[in-house]
Amino acid sequence: MAGESMSTPGVPDPVLPSPEGSPTPAVDPLLTMRLGEFIIEERIGAGGMGVVYRAVHPLIGKHAAIKVLRPERMARREEAQLLLEAKAVNAIRHPGILDIFNCGTLPDGRPYIVMELLQGRTLSEVLLEKGKLDVELTVWVLDQLLSALGAVHRAGVVHRDVNPENVFLREFLDTKPTLKLVDFGIAQVPREESPGANGAMTGTPECMSPEQIRGGTVGPAADLYSVGILAFQMLTGARPFQGEHMQVMFAQVESVPPAPSTRAEGIPPALDALVLQLLEKKPARRPASAEAARQQLSAIEAALRTPVTPPVQAEPVVVPTVVPSAAPTSRRNKVVVGAAVLMAFGVGIVGGRVQHKAGPAQAPTAPAVKRPVVVEPAPVSPPTLVAPPASEPPAQEPQKEDSLQE
């Protein structure tokens, strides 16, 4: 939950100062108290708005989380926000949204809500451990988150506090993790006046959209801007704007964010472009909806699954077909051409010698050039050797006939 620092079950939480400076009591009076069908066993988180406990059903052993408003928040009329959170969640009905299935009031008048108890880690804890995520895991987280936000927006709700603390990764043995979007404590609910909805700046400064920082009216596009911040942080290990709260908020309104690919390697250009579109200053320039952003993400995911193969060059076909057909004739041509070249080369040498020794006497070289030409009729003789055997049988038969007549 936003502002609720989750602790390890069984390990006592330190004494946390309240916003007014008064310390939290060392012994919590709510421990062992029965609220509805559940008995509170331990405190597992605390924040500025409420305290979260782990509770158990005494008969069936089902575990649940119970969020109780802090006593000092009663004077600020924030008790109504817990009921608005329960209404908002039950209006969405999506597996990626934390389920709230009961609510009530303590004897002192403080409201509480009963939620499913999640097993796993927040995205903030995962990023603290790994620094950044690979492209495939980032795309999976964004797809799950956009799916949940799509359902949120279709129900007319704006979360207004999408940050790594409110994205929970459920982890089970031998199964794939699932994602849950939690803490609708400052959500904008349709036809309801929620605290901070009229001109007040609400949310986490590092993940707030420019329109939230200005205190203006926010819509679903504000949540998409926060998704862009998370995407940038998952890909690079850091948010696009760094500094104190006021510096970050000023940058959210005025500064152009860098492309994620300038901070980390291996980011596809299409994913780079989608993150920058989510981080547009004007809401109209961001994706039209969470579903539209998810469709772009699906194309990126499909491209990541498609193996990139280099173009295969065609095998040389021309050379094998030309060489066999030219082989029978090329041998004879090579012999004739080689002989001509050697004889011409020899003639040149002889001629050079004659010119060197005899000077102007060049007449003896003329007959030498004509001698290779006389040799060419030699290959014609084989066909003439085949003709005589074909003509012998007809010549013998008439002689036998003459002998018989005699």
From TrEMBL:
The keyword Transmembrane does not apply. It comes from the Bacteria. The keyword Ion transport does not apply. Residues 1-27, 357-406 are annotated as: Disordered. GO terms for molecular function: protein serine/threonine kinase activity. ATP binds at K67. Residues 11-22, 379-396 have a biased composition (Pro residues). CDD domains: STKc_PknB_like. Residues 38-304 form the Protein kinase domain. Keywords: ATP-binding, Kinase, Nucleotide-binding, Serine/threonine-protein kinase, Transferase. This is Serine/threonine protein kinase. It comes from Corallococcus praedator.
